[in-house]
Amino acid sequence: RDKFKLKNKTIFFYGGNIGVAQDLDNVVRLAKNLINFQKIHFLLVGDGTEFNRISRLIKKNRLDNISLYQSVNQYEYLSLLSEVDVGLISLNKNFKTSNYPGKMLGYMEFYLPILMSTNKENDLISLIESSNSGLVSINGDDEMFLKNTITLFKNIKMRKKMGDNSFKLLKEKFSSESAADKILFIDEK
């Protein structure tokens, strides 16, 4: 928080590929809609084909509530995850199938609630909602994305509960133990 000058801010963190599939224009629009919320900050860290364009878009709109940094090493990445408040996922609305971003597992490991904007066909919608581990909107519904962000910003207890549920979901659905249990169960049939 000191390094990025983000003390006393609620940090919504995106870490990973910055490409067409992630549609980070979606997050830039969100930051623009939240420009008057001085305590909300978006921290984007990664590389990809859209990095330079997103950087120019942030500068063009003079957004001081969103920071974009190039990839960091694994140690720094994990250090960032231990300091932020919400894990952010944005997926292109034109996807027709489910997509399980690897970054989500890192968010869950650090007890972060998930703020997701995704394509309507994604199975993650029901998984995140049924486990109460985050808030989801359909990419393109900027009003709901905004509402979900403000809800997570204002409700610290909800963030904490969803973060706990996020970690629980990781252990129940994505751990090596749960994978082994599924394999063993299939073998028993």
Outline the secondary-structure elements.
Elements: E1 10-15, H1 25-33, E2 40-45, H2 51-60, E3 66-69, H3 74-81, E4 86-90, H4 103-109, E5 114-118, H5 124-131, E6 134-138, H6 142-154, H7 156-174, H8 176-188
Parallel strand pairs: 1-2, 1-4, 2-3, 4-5, 5-6
Helix pairs in contact: 4-7, 7-8
Account of the 3D structure:
With 189 residues, the chain is an alpha/beta fold. The protein has helices spanning 25-33, 51-60, 74-81, 103-109, 124-131, 142-154, 156-174, 176-188; strands spanning 10-15, 40-45, 66-69, 86-90, 114-118, 134-138. Strand 4, helix 4 and strand 5 (114-118) form a beta-alpha-beta unit. Helix 7 packs across helix 8 (176-188). The model has no long low-confidence stretch (mean pLDDT 91).
List keywords for this structure.
189 residues; alpha/beta; 6-stranded parallel β-sheet; globular
Structural class: alpha/beta
Spatial arrangement of strands, main beta sheet: 3-2-1-4-5-6
Number of helices: 8
Give the topology string: H per helix, E per strand.
Answer: EHEHEHEHEHEHHH
Give the strand content. Answer: 15-25%
Supply Rg.
Answer: 16 Å
The major beta sheet can be summarized as: 6 strands, parallel
Number of strands: 6
Percent in helix? 40-55%
Low-confidence stretches: none
Dominant shape: globular
Distance from N terminus to C terminus (CA atoms, Å) equals 51 Å
Q: Name the average pLDDT.
A: 91
